[in-house]
């Protein structure tokens, strides 16, 4: 079976059950590894899950392409990829658990042909303190489904993930876990949900590869164990409850299903191979074998990195991103450059790298016909970037040899190579090693790089023309207005709205953000009103330096996919403990919001689409 076949079977299975297929949005950034199949994937659908009518009806199905930049360095093992596809199906107040769980089970066992004895499932154990009952309904449905196949169906209680490592499988088939594992809401566990927030239990399905448990994770194995024996292949979220003012939970008038499953993972289960690459990247690996004369088994790490990174780059370029020094372009650049390095390693002839595009396009053109239309552009973009990288490499290697000529390679030298020539550290270590240098002061290097990143983050944060040098009063005021606007957008359009790009000049500010439809004039009026109120309130604008984790805990907004140093600069509008807005930001800003009024009133001039799912607003102070 191939990826195309699994995807096709999935879409057809649900279309036969009256689901409308919705097209994949442009690449969704997913950086949080804890929300693999829930939450982030459904963001564009949140308004509909909250009761808004979806134009396509109450039963939806899709296959959504996704890119997770946070995993670039992780790629190389048997399951991490930056690009993947998420299978989704939704009931918007239509069917519920009694249909969803049997359907997914039928799809896995009858359509894909997985052995049901290798499937293990989880359900929500309940939260007594917050008055949310145990999801016995889901557990009972699973018991029936396994019994019908003549398979043992013991239900056991695990508790937390940590408990799982102590209590183990206990001969179970269906496992109760706590809210941290089996509950979904935008705010997290029931306790953290504000009044009026919907949420509900979920139920995951795991495939058992039967590999031995690795005790480095804990004494016992269990479905949520990270040792690699179990692979999560899908999760059904049941949006069932709403939190009341008094903290209790009531049933939502219309209950929803939000399902997400991993296409590549379901295929890996079908092939019985915990290595997802032979299935999900088969034709690419075969092509790499013929180009290099080596086999996948000769150097699995290099083959995996080339296959994944090139695939992700192809899709990002098709979505309109070009390799470059900043924003999403920077990810495409990193993906291509890292892939080129590994292509060299397995001996693909220089400048032959763009040939890897063809098998990727062939694999995906049925579902994503734009790839075939754009293949010329994609090949050129990749070949150009390879070319630029090779020129940089050649200069960098000369420089490296000059440093080494002096007898060693200092942290400062390594830092210079990274920042000036764009050398990855792993490449420096490798090249230096080949030239007899075994010791490099990595700690010293990291310190230098951390300081540098903080500075360049501060400088590039607003891709302001001229960076920090442009501190013209009007630009600074618009920058502060930009922060107010982002927060106002979230208040009016929803917390899932985030910045996807920005540009500020002396005349106007511009922000790009994710949102699935046109913002209405009423909403724009509301947004303007909030910004102008905050200007009038004359809130202090405060810069604080803190540990990155602390800033993340405070919910500080940060740029899509950016890597930050361990200590970051954060700007809050209002004092930090009761801030209206908090962002990772290098400034500069006004010291009090009323200064903005000296330029005038905040006005939104234009709202428009820039890409599918991405809107742009231009605004002024006048
Ligand atoms: Zn294990
Ligand atoms: Zn800023």
In short:
39% of the residues lie in helices and 21% in strands.
What features would you describe in this structure?
It is built from 20 helices and 18 strands. The strands form three sheets. Strands 1, 2, 3, 4, 5, 6, 7, 8, 9, 10 and 11 form an eleven-stranded mixed beta sheet that branches. A four-stranded antiparallel beta sheet has the order 12-13-18-17, covered by helices on one side. Strands 14-15-16 form a three-stranded antiparallel beta sheet. It has 622 residues and is of the alpha+beta class. α3 (97-111) runs parallel beside α4 and α10 (300-318) packs antiparallel against α11. Residues 28-42 and 456-470 have low confidence and may be disordered. β12 (499-504) and β13 form a beta hairpin. The chain has helices at residues 3-15, 46-49, 97-111, 136-148, 161-167, 179-182, 263-271, 277-280, 282-292, 300-318, 327-345, 357-364, 370-373, 375-405, 411-421, 425-434, 442-460, 473-493, 521-536, 548-553; strands spanning 20-21, 28-29, 59-67, 83-92, 119-124, 155-159, 174-177, 183-185, 198-208, 230-243, 249-262, 499-504, 509-514, 541-547, 567-573, 581-584, 602-611, 614-621. It starts with a helix and ends with a strand. The protein binds zinc ion (2 copies). The site of one zinc ion (ZN) has 6 residues, from α18.
